[in-house]
C-alpha cells in the first residue's frame, strides 16, 4: 500500500491489535446508534460445587441492547436436574433488570437447540456445515414476550 500500511496474518492474540479493531468498531457503531449501545457489561451466573469452586454456568454480556450468551455449560454429572433452565432464567431476569430487549445466543446442532426451543427461543439463523457435518444455530428471545420480527 502506497502510504506504508501493510497487512499481517498473526496467530497470537495481540491485545493492542484487538483493542484497535474493537475500539474503532465501537466508535463507528456508537456514532450511528448513540452512546452506551455497545457498552459490554458482563453477566455471569455461576454454578458452584459444595466447596464454592465454579463447575459451570453462563457467561454473557450486554451487546447492542440485548444480552448475548457467549457460553453456557452444565457438567454432565449435573444435567437433568433443571439447572440449565434455572441458570438461563436467572440470566433472563438480570437482562430484564438491565432493561435489555432480549437474549441471543448460538448453539451447535449436537448441543442444545431443543433445550432453547423449550425455553421460548426462536431460531433466527442457521449456518450449515459449521462444524463439518453439523450446523450452528442462532437463537433469540424477546423478554417482553413479543414475537421476533424480521428485519
Automatic annotation (TrEMBL):
Pfam families: Acetyltransf_1
InterPro entries in the record: Acyl_CoA_acyltransferase (IPR016181), Bact_Acetyltransf (IPR050832), GNAT_dom (IPR000182)
Superkingdom field: Bacteria
Record keywords: Acyltransferase, Transferase
Record's keyword annotation contains Cell membrane: no
Annotated ranges, domain N-acetyltransferase: 5-145
Name of the molecule in the record: GNAT family N-acetyltransferase
Amino acid at each position: 500500500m502506497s502510504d506504508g500500511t501493510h497487512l499481517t496474518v498473526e496467530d497470537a492474540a495481540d491485545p493492542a491489535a484487538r483493542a484497535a479493531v474493537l475500539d474503532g468498531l465501537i466508535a463507528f457503531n456508537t456514532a450511528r446508534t448513540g452512546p452506551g449501545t455497545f457498552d459490554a457489561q458482563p453477566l455471569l451466573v455461576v454454578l458452584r460445587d459444595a466447596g464454592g469452586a465454579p463447575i459451570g454456568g453462563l457467561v454473557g454480556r450486554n451487546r447492542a441492547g440485548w444480552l448475548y450468551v457467549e457460553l453456557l455449560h452444565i457438567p454432565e454429572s449435573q444435567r437433568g436436574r433443571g439447572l440449565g433452565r434455572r441458570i438461563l432464567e436467572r440470566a433472563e431476569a438480570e437482562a430484564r433488570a438491565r432493561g435489555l430487549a432480549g437474549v441471543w445466543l448460538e448453539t451447535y446442532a449436537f448441543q442444545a437447540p431443543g433445550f432453547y426451543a423449550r425455553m421460548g427461543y426462536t431460531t433466527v439463523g442457521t449456518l450449515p456445515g459449521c462444524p463439518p457435518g453439523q450446523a450452528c444455530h442462532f437463537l433469540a428471545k424477546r423478554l417482553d414476550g413479543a414475537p421476533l420480527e424480521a428485519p
